[in-house]
Amino acid sequence: MKIQRKRTGTAAQRVLTAEVAVVGALLLALFVTEIPSMMREMKIWRIAGGLRAGHRYP
Fold first, then answer.
1. Strands (DSSP E) along 1-58, which ranges?
2. What are the Cα distances from residue 23, in Å, to 1, 16, 28?
3. Cα–Cα distance between 53 and 58 in angstroms, integer?
4. Do residues 48 and 57 make contact, with C-beta atoms less than 8 angstroms apart?
5. Collapsed DSSP state (helix, strand, coil) of residue 52
6. Residues whose CB falls within 8 Å of the CB of residue 49, separated by 6 or more in sequence, listed in order
7. pTM of the predicted model, to two decimals?
8. 16 vs 1: CA distance, rounded Å
9. Domain count of the chain?
10. Is 6 a domain residue?
11. pLDDT single digits (tens) 28-45
């Protein structure tokens, strides 16, 4: 005897979930590739004085 499983969502919900997963993966990949640039900017910011620089660098 074959057991039928109950579907947990409509096709549209499954497609939406897949799209969210793809967009999330792309955003994560973009963030990971930008980490070296962010680290470089943080170094420059610290060399320039960080928060203590105040009004010296507009």
1. none
2. 41, 11, 9
3. 10
4. yes
5. helix
6. 56, 57
7. 0.58
8. 33
9. 1
10. no
11. 999 999 999 999 999 998
